[in-house]
Amino acid sequence: MEFSNVTAIAKANVYFDGRVVSHSILSADGSKRTLGLIYPGTYHFGTDAAERMEITDGTCSVVLDGTDARRDYNAGSAFEVPAKSGFTIKVEGGICQYVCSFLV
Fold it and tell me: Could you report the per-residue pLDDT of 48-82, keeping only the tens digit for each?
């Protein structure tokens, strides 16, 4: 996946003692994405805006807030999270890479 005509923010977003790290990119149209890495572990994230998480490398399992259903995702797959919600993501081995797009 490649993005043209963007501004990259050099300061990293670091979560869970460095186990999840991302960088923000801003498009000319004002949209925002983050590109990140998730190391093995289980993490919960809350959302303000709706998000689309595209897995670009590795594997993970996800449970959306308000559900008990666990779904597995690997490179080339994606899931969406409603605004004012959240999800729990688990990476069992290796590194999971993702692109998070903030939906309007």
Answer: 999 999 999 999 999 999 999 999 999 999 999 99
By CB atoms closer than 10 A (0-12, 13-18, 19+), residue 96 is: buried
Closest CA to 46 of 21, 81, 95: 81
**CATH number for the domain running over 6-102:** 2.60.120.10
In this structure, the dihedral spanned by the alpha carbons of residues 98, 95, 11 and 43, taken in order and rounded to 10 degrees, is 80
**pLDDT tens digits, residue range 25-48?**
999 998 999 999 999 999 999 999
